[in-house]
Amino acid sequence: MRRENNAQEFDRLRAKYRNFKRTIPQKAAITMVNFFKRNFNVGGFVDVPFQKWKKSTYPGARTTMVRSGNTRREIKKIQVSESRVVVGIGNHNHYAKIHNEGGEILITPKMRRFFWAKYKESGKEYWKWLALTTKTHIEIPQRKFIGDSKALEKTLDRMILSELKKIIS
Fold first, then answer.
1. Could you read off the pLDDT of 91-138 as tens digits, one per residue?
2. Confidence (pLDDT) at 33
3. Is the peptide bond between 49 and the residue preceding it cis, with omega within 30 degrees of 0?
4. Which DSSP string corresponds to 37-73?
5. Helices (runs of H) and strands (runs of E) counted in the chain
6. Which residues contact 23 (CB under 8 A, 6 or more apart)?
7. What is the pLDDT of residue 54?
8. Using only C-alpha atoms, what is the Rg of the chain?
9. Which residues pair with 139 in a beta bridge?
């Protein structure tokens, strides 16, 4: 009789564990996506310590890194399996990588024509000076919004621990 109760309890715990193992990667991916999107709201990369973004000089930006919101919207789950969770941005977003890592962009003649067109359209000196600059590159400062973070690790640890406590109780 006691052996049957132990077997039933074992089966119940095994079912809970299988469910946990199946659902926790999805929950972790959602937690990661939300964590990285929050970086846009706080204006920097949440880590230990917090890495505030350098202010944008672009006249069309409402706040740094937020003009259209495309980069933030494109942070998604890329791969989710029991052994691996990958969150990122698709390859079609060309400017996300340069913002996340920083670097230089070559100023091409086509870009200079664009700057002149923007100057004629808006009358803003910003565009005129970009068109007239003797520089050959534009320096993009690093504004990291996705990557390894001690704060994210702590958030994931708390979430996993909370889910484990639900199973045990």
1. 777 788 888 999 999 999 999 999 999 999 999 999 999 999 999 999
2. 95
3. yes
4. HHHHHHTEE-SSS-EEPPPP--TT-SBTTBSS-HHHH
5. 6, 6
6. 163
7. 87
8. 24
9. 104
